[in-house]
Structures are given as structure tokens and as C-alpha cells.
Amino acid sequence: MITLRQLEALYWISHLGTFERAATRLNTTQSAISKRIQELELVVGLAVFDRNQRGARLTEKGEHLLAMAEEMLRLQEQILELKTSGETPARRLRLGVTELSAMTWFPRLISKVRELYPKVSLEPHVDTSRALDAMLRDDELDLIVIPEVFPSDEVICVRLADVSNAWMARPGLVAPTDEALTLEQLSKYPAVIQGGRSGTGLFYNRWLRSQGLVFPQAIASDNLMALVGFTIAGVGISYLPRQCLRPLVDEGRLVVIPTRPVLPPIPYSAVYRNDRPSAFTAIIADLMCDICDFSRQLQS
Known about the structure:
alpha/beta; Arc Repressor Mutant, subunit A; D-Maltodextrin-Binding Protein, domain 2; 3 domains; five-stranded mixed beta sheet; 12 helices; 19% strand; elongated; DNA-binding; WH_DNA-bd_sf; LysR_HTH_N; DNA-binding transcription factor activity; transcription regulation
């Protein structure tokens, strides 16, 4: 195993020119310094110093090793400085959310993180739930917000909110009725639904199958705004987030279709890997709990 003592010996020998001077600098003996270099050469499997030359002259491989040793020793100094430094070290935070978060509360979260942690480099990413889950597992994202549709022992889920959805349509597409429509009655209408890369789509497609409901000619899209546009244009009925689209209902561009049974709410969570323990990630997840609000669009 390579140790910092070995790398320190290599560094000071190369900078002071002899084993003896390095020993004096490190307050040890020349034999101890020689032993550290011998152990280092044994571990890496190459000669660090050229024994055919006078003085402590590095081999070509030894020079490459010295460069890496200097970097490791600098990192050691930075780690030790954390104890005495009053400043938070610079870091990056890679966040992933779906469209619904991006169009409601996520911008407000970004502003709050910037306010609280000005040195943090933020890398936001908006994509489908399936894509975000894959990026989290590939260590391309630190924290994602998606519906709870990918159960796994490898992640930690912090529940944020339940999102209520309702069947909606363009006014006039579905005949008004005093009674709630059954799922069988709904199936007679053209539908636009979310696809298999959408967490909402996966959640509701599973639920609809459990209820025996199939839309024979449904149009599927993983893009929420496209679904809203299709529904407003009268392409078909669709399940859409009830609260944040309330303005479109109030404007008369969409109507809510009463149904029985009603759609179950979708649980949204902040998700991060449990093999990447990070107090900072947990803090941001808790901050999401305070800020998360799916009821209004374009929050600032």
C-alpha cells in the first residue's frame, strides 16, 4: 500500500537533492528514508531513482510518480486546512428534475441554494424520470426529484409531496354530465397519455392496467407541455396535474372530467444514492422539503 510517508520522502529527496537532506527535513534517519523509497518501489513495481547515476536522480517513471505525489500531498494539505478554515470549500451540486418541478418550484430552490451556498457550482438538469434515474445510478447526478416508481435498496428517498392529477379535456370534447364517468366510459374517448420514460406515465399506466382500462389508440408522449398542448387542441383527454394547471381551467381552455374512481395521487421524492454518503446532499434534500410546491407555475 502506498503511504503519505513514502510520498513525502520522494518529494523531499527530489527537491533537496539527497536522502540525507530529506531525512533532516522530515526529522528522521537516512536509513528510514531509504526504507520508505524501497517500499514505494516495491508497491508500484518500478525503479523511482536511477541507481546508475550519482546523486538522487529520478527515472522517467519516477518523474511521473513525483507529479502525482505532489498532487496527493496538496490534497492532504487542503483536507487538513478544513479543520481551521472558516470558509465552506467550493463544490458542485448536480441536480436532476422532471418538467413538473422545473415549471413550478425548482427555480425557487436554485435561488435559495445560491443564497445559502454562494460557492456551490450548480448543474441543473431537466429530463424524464427514467433518464434521471439512470444518470443517478451512473453517478452523473447527485440528487434527483422523480415520482417513486423505481424502488431500490441502493437509494435513499425523501418524500416531498403527493401530486394530485385529474382527467382533463378541451371544453365540448366530453359531454357534460351530472355523474362522474366510469373508467370504461373514459376508454371510449381518444386519449393522450405519458409514455414509458415518464414517471407519471409509468405510475398511471400500471394503475390503469390494474383497473382493466385500455385506450386502444392512445397517443403517448413523455413531454408534459406537449400533452397540455394536445389536450387544449382537442386531440384527446389526458391526466394532468390538477393544481398547477388550475389557471387554464379558470380561463376555460381546459375542463376537469369528474371520474370514478379518481386518479390516485403520485408520490414525489428527492432521491440520492446510499453509497455516496453526503451531509450536504441530505441538507439539500431537506431544503427541497421546505420549498417544494407543485401548486403554482413559474415560482420565484
